[in-house]
Design goal:
The protein is an alpha/beta fold. The chain has helices at 4-9, 50-55, 65-69, 71-79, 107-113, 152-156, 168-182, 206-212, 215-223, 260-266, 273-278, 280-285, 303-317, 320-325, 337-346, 348-354, 376-393, and strands at 60-63, 84-87, 114-118, 126-127, 134-135, 140-141, 146-147, 163-165, 196-199, 229-235, 251-257, 267-268, 289-297, 327-332, 334-335, 360-364, 370-374, 398-402. Helix 13 (303-317) packs parallel to helix 17 (376-393). The longest helix has 18 residues, at 376-393. Bound molecules: iron/sulfur cluster.
């Protein structure tokens, strides 16, 4: 049965009006989808719209020669005919791009105007057990959005625009072998009751990648042929082109949400949170499973009230069919000294809420980096607080895990 209140209140995704200003200097939020229904391969695609070109106005493509010459590389270069192609030996440590301190001030511009094409040399699928059963080798690395807390820039250094891996066939072959070796999932777990879940977007955002090329589409389609597995990716961008891919329930989209006032300050260049929530029913109806990431939870004065308002909004506008299948991850903010220092140079206001040494402690992450997270007592109480808020305001939202 439909949640009538939800259906009445949820605005249509493709008619949403003006966007609110972003919280960082020189940054505008992600463009809204145009009015009218999404078009598939037979019609105009969102990624060819002026709105999409504002998110990615590519002027320079740093490309490994083999990547540029590959079929996927040629497609991408052809999509940005005005861009200068600069040959590079490796997609790692491109001089003047990665690790270049000068890029702190040009943070958003680098993300908008620069692409990197490379070939993935190693394919390793890692066990996870939280967000997904497995972390797949990603089809990209880096992002055109600019969330102030994002750990992705830490990997390559500074702005880290999108690097597209053009050898997608090798990635699909690797995944096919991995899935075949595993066989059926022996027992349910919190990741999924039946399917092995593979996170395909650990180091980027697959929805924005789909503005660049077809790697996301290839992955979504591939998982329709693997009945024991399911793809999953988190996103902060609503890309209506994904609605045409026919995922047949084998891809889980996790819309990341946070209170709007936090997002305006921290989620730079992303789709406004209300639009991400408004898109949920469209994605469900298009054949995706739709979950939510309540993340990152940033502790600041008034955070409980702000999250309560967000959860009440979700309860008000989401239709029953979305609620019935939804689940959520809750992730408290982790931050990092180096990123803090860089952010002070391009978006210092964000650091007023992200960097709270009196409430944070060092934490060594999986890859050996030293991050900071909320102190044990503070964090435990906050996790309980979020659980209580969900129980009070969105009791239909099953929490898969919280940490
Ligand atoms: S959308 Fe994700 S990958 Fe992109 S900047 Fe934000 S946190 Fe990073």
């Amino acid at each position: 049965m439909q949640d009538r209140r939800g259906d009445r209140d949820q605005p249509a995704l493709f008619g949403i009006g003006d966007l609110e200003p972003a919280g960082a200097p020189g940054a505008s939020p992600a463009p809204s989808a145009p009015s009218g229904p999404a078009s598939g391969p037979a019609g105009p695609m969102f990624r060819d719209s002026p709105a999409a070109r504002r998110m990615l106005a590519v002027r320079e493509i740093h490309a490994e020669p083999a990547a540029a010459a590959s079929p996927r590389g040629r497609e991408i270069v052809a999509r940005f005919p005005g861009a200068r192609v600069v040959p590079v030996d490796s997609h790692w440590r491109i001089p003047g791009l990665h690790g270049s301190e000068g890029n702190a001030e040009r943070w958003v511009r680098v993300k908008t105007e620069t692409l990197v094409l490379g070939e993935r040399k190693t394919f390793t699928t890692r066990p996870n057990g939280r967000s997904a059963d497995w972390i797949a080798p990603g089809p990209s690395n880096g992002c055109a959005m600019a969330c102030a807390y994002c750990y992705v820039p830490r990997r390559k250094g500074y702005a880290n625009p999108i690097t597209v891996f053009t050898n997608i066939d090798a990635l699909l072959a690797h995944l096919g072998r991995h899935i075949a070796r595993l066989g059926p999932k022996p027992e349910p777990n919190q990741c999924d009751p039946e399917a092995w879940v593979y996170d395909i977007g650990e180091n980027g955002d697959c929805s924005v990648d789909a503005l660049v090329g077809d790697n996301t589409a290839d992955l979504v389609r591939a998982f329709t042929h693997w009945p024991t597995a399911k793809a999953s990716f988190a996103t902060k961008f609503v890309n209506p082109d994904l609605l045409a891919l026919d995922p047949r329930g084998r891809t889980r989209v996790r819309f990341s949400v946070m209170p709007a006032e936090d997002a305006r300050l921290l989620d730079v260049r992303t789709t406004p949170v209300a639009e991400r929530i408004a898109a949920a029913a469209d994605f469900l109806d298009a054949g995706y499973e739709v979950h939510f990431n309540l993340s990152p939870v940033v502790l600041r004065p008034g955070w409980r009230q702000a999250w309560a308002d967000l959860l009440r909004h979700m309860d008000d506008v989401l239709p029953r069919r979305v609620k019935d299948q939804a689940a959520a991850e809750v992730i408290l903010l982790t931050h990092n000294r180096e990123l803090h220092d860089v952010n002070l140079r391009w978006h210092p206001r964000a650091e007023e809420v992200l960097w709270r040494p009196e409430e944070q402690q060092p934490k060594r992450s999986e890859n050996g980096a030293v991050n900071v997270r909320y102190r044990t007592g503070v964090k435990g109480e906050a996790v309980r607080g979020v659980r209580d808020l969900v129980a009070a305001h969105a009791p239909w939202l099953r929490i898969r895990y919280a940490f």
